[in-house]
Amino acid sequence: MIELGKMQTLEVKNITSVGVFLNTKDSQKKDKDVLLPKKEVPEGTKVGDEIEVFIYRDFKERIIATTRRPKVILGEVGLLEVVDITSIGAFLDWGLEKDLFLPFKEQTTKLEKGRKYPIGLYIDKSNRLCGTMKIRDFLSSDSPYKENDWVKGVIYSINDKFGAFVAVDNKYEGLIPKKELIGVYAIGDIVDVRVTNVKDDGKLDLSLRDKFYIEIEEDAEIILNKAMEKGGILYLNDYSSPKEIRKELNMSKSAFKRALGRLLKEEKVEFIKGGIKVK
């Protein structure tokens, strides 16, 4: 069976002046063949040869084959550029002569011409290939990644309550929680993120920050809290011994100095004789 939207290996059934007609190896005479245009037919092709092709519809909505693999196939997600925007939808460059149609109802944000967005490929009710920005159902939760792995992804949805949803490798479901979403981001932004947790259902929690940065932030919070417990003053500084720091804060001297440097830079504390004071 010839399948729309997929890469298939089909057999050459007939050779004509306009190209070759293909079908599955076990096809019957009643089964309709599909045309691979002459300009795409490999030199020396004979009846019975097998050719890997992608099946889609041409400008006249006829089923046709191409030896080119598009930037996205059925059931997958790809990063596609907007080449035109109309009142009924947008058109995307997916690597074939005919651009991919993205219906208005399948858009999740205002599009910009020339910008790339994560797009899934599906077959609509009229048996046509279309794009969608609603890609959550295209993503799986069986990634090979573990905690502290760095991965690349694209933001496909932003929720004011939860954060930014990310398609990792265009395959796996991930979330940058709101508290980790530092800066301004938009749908279509590519991000390098660190896996902070693999949930029981396999979905990934992500962070834009490395572990070292977060540790400094957490240590700085510990120093501030301890100082506030003591009336806003903590008698520790760069000259305190590692033993004193460990006893008071349960952290190493190097960790203390890094966190203290952060607090000083942010002007949250200041030096006093023998220690620091919360501003």
Your description of this structure?
The structure is a single chain. This protein has 279 residues and is mostly beta strands. It folds into four domains: 7-66, Beta Barrel (OB fold (Dihydrolipoamide Acetyltransferase, E2P)); 77-136, Beta Barrel (OB fold (Dihydrolipoamide Acetyltransferase, E2P)); 139-209, OB fold (Dihydrolipoamide Acetyltransferase, E2P) (Beta Barrel); 212-278, Arc Repressor Mutant, subunit A (Orthogonal Bundle). Helices cover 14% and strands 38% of the residues. The chain has helices at 211-229, 242-249, 253-265, and strands at residues 7-16, 19-23, 34-37, 50-57, 63-66, 77-85, 89-93, 100-103, 116-123, 129-132, 150-159, 163-168, 172-177, 190-198, 204-207, 233-234, 269-272, 275-278. The chain has a five-stranded antiparallel sheet with strand order 3-2-1-4-5, with no helix packed on it. Strands 8-7-6-9-10 form a five-stranded antiparallel sheet, with no helix packed on it. The protein has a five-stranded mixed barrel with strand order 11-12-13-15-14. Helix 1 crosses helix 3 (253-265). The model has no long low-confidence stretch (mean pLDDT 93). It comes from Keratinibaculum paraultunense.
CATH architecture of the largest domain: Beta Barrel
Q: Please give the order of strands in the largest beta sheet.
A: 3-2-1-4-5
Shape: elongated
Number of H- or I-type helical stretches: 3
Report the order of strands and helices: EEEEEEEEEEEEEEEHEHHEE
| CATH fold category name of the largest domain | OB fold (Dihydrolipoamide Acetyltransferase, E2P)
Look at the helices and sheets and give the structural class: mainly beta
Radius of gyration: 28 Å
CATH superfamily of the largest domain: Nucleic acid-binding proteins
Mean pLDDT: 93
| Top-tier CATH class of the largest domain | Mainly Beta
Distance between the termini: 74 Å
Task: Please describe the biggest sheet, giving its number of strands, its sense, and whether it closes into a barrel.
Answer: 5 strands, antiparallel
Number of domains: 4
- Please tally the β strands and state the result: 18
Low-confidence runs of at least 5 consecutive residues: none
| Helical coverage, percent range | 10-25%
